[in-house]
Amino acid sequence: MIFDRRAELGEFLRSRRARLRPEEFGLTSYGRQRRVPGLRREELAQLAGVSVDHYVRLEQGRNLQFSGEVLDAVAKALRLNPAEREHLHLLARPAPAAAEEPTGGPPLRPGIHSLLSAISDAPAYVVDHRTDVRAWNRPAAALITDFGELPAAERNMARLVFLDDGVRDLYVDWWARARDVVAFLRLDIARPPGPPAAQALIEELSAVSPEFGQIWAEHDIKAREHGSYRYRHPLVGELELAYETLRLPGHPDLALIVHTAEEGSPSQEALRILTR
């Protein structure tokens, strides 16, 4: 499964068209049986206020030089959320020249490691665009897995969620977590530096995990911002933790994820026991 920007653009647009129904927009039928669900290309073009040929060239990836105004009009017609709109803009523009990625990415600043160590009562870790866990604190290792005991190539959240039985069992709603990690990955790999490192991960997971292939085909997009997950930890039982995401200055492809529990909740007490 190769990540090709033009193919990805077409598949993404078709998947978003399939979610919509003509009757939602007061469109009249063309008088023939529909062969596919959702809006037709000509209907989408009409809603976006662009020519059918212009939209077809966009969906087929024949031209990656579309203006922001055209892309915004298409995004509005497709009712894209902000993350999906960003994804469309990333895919519909020429990819920047890919620099050679050093193995494991560039070294992190010492201050980032110091920051993680200073967060002593909340699980926190740093991930890159391909979900590699680049650094973590002791509470994160206690909550998720002992990253330090894993080979560097296996310190990857997507791999752990899909291929590690212990991590899989950790999430009460594993499917929700799996869909999120794929949606995060899909948005992030369209950003620089993008493939080839991310490409190798997609190919690996597609080959060994039917669930990954199923979810990848859904083309869902989600920004890694904030949310919550319920955990079933073998030492402290169930707990619900919120997470917040902070982008690191000077490292636009890196994100700091911090998990917290509601003040005074049983989850906070469980987290306190887990991290003491």
From TrEMBL:
Domain of life: Bacteria
InterPro entries the UniProt entry points to: Cro/C1-type_HTH, Lambda_DNA-bd_dom_sf, MLTR_LBD
Annotated ranges, domain HTH cro/C1-type: 32-85
Pfam families attached to this UniProt entry: HTH_31 (PF13560), MLTR_LBD (PF17765)
PANTHER family, A to Z: BLL4672 PROTEIN, BLL4672 PROTEIN-RELATED
Protein name: Helix-turn-helix transcriptional regulator
Species lineage: Bacteria, Bacillati, Actinomycetota, Actinomycetes, Kitasatosporales
